[in-house]
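hiii so um. not sure if this is the right channel but i have a protein structure encoded as tokens and i wanna go backwards to a sequence. like what aa goes where. can anyone help
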């Protein structure tokens, strides 16, 4: 009898452990990135501003209000990207665009001098966001949830929505952070107009009337 009680207790214990493991794995799998320039300049996948431009809710033409500090071509192409995605049943949310050097330095402190996860490896002046030449994006589900799920296929066409957006972005002249060899930044899109960060730090600026964004040499 004593043996049966011990055996029963062991079974209950194992069931409790399995339940806890399932719960932990479930939470980890669905914990979204904390940031888009995370999902950034980590030139990373991790930096997103809480001041997210709001999506237009009207049917038909889709656009958002970008920062006045964002380069005009990125504003134009960003809205074209949102529209192209909307035409295929995908709602794109821009989680960040221009970011000041001060905001960049504050973001850099995360996971270092202040709590949280490290979301960027770029200090102020070391991100294309600081020059109005980059945006970060995420996806919005029909229920209004903002996600960074690169496998999500909300329009059910057999291709992950994230990669459809990336395809549209590249066709519009954006460079994707997911293509970088190091510090892959999957939500990050930029146009550098052939200018390196060193050029920009020295005061160089792209021509605002430019209609093309030439990738800088790698």
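sure thing!! here u go:
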């Amino acid at each position: 009898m004593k043996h049966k009680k011990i055996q029963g207790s062991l079974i209950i214990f194992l069931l409790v452990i399995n339940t806890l493991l399932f719960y932990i794995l479930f939470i980890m799998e669905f914990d979204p990135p904390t940031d888009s320039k995370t999902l950034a300049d980590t030139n990373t996948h991790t930096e997103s501003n809480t001041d997210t431009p709001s999506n237009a809710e009207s049917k038909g033409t889709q656009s958002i209000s970008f920062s006045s500090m964002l380069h005009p071509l990125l504003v134009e192409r960003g809205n074209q990207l949102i529209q192209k995605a909307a035409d295929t049943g995908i709602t794109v949310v821009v989680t960040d665009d221009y970011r000041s050097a001060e905001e960049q330095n504050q973001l850099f402190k995360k996971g270092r001098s202040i709590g949280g996860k490290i979301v960027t490896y770029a200090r102020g002046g070391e991100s294309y966001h600081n020059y109005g030449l980059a945006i970060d994006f995420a996806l919005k589900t029909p229920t209004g949830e903002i996600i960074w799920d690169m496998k999500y296929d909300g329009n059910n066409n057999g291709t992950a929505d994230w990669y459809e957006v990336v395809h549209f972005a590249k066709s519009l002249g954006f460079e994707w952070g997911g293509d970088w060899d190091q510090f892959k930044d999957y939500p990050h899109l930029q146009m550098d107009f052939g200018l390196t960060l060193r050029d920009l730090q020295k005061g160089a600026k792209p021509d605002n009337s430019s209609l093309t964004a030439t990738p800088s040499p790698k």
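oh and The chain has two domains: 1-31, 33-201.
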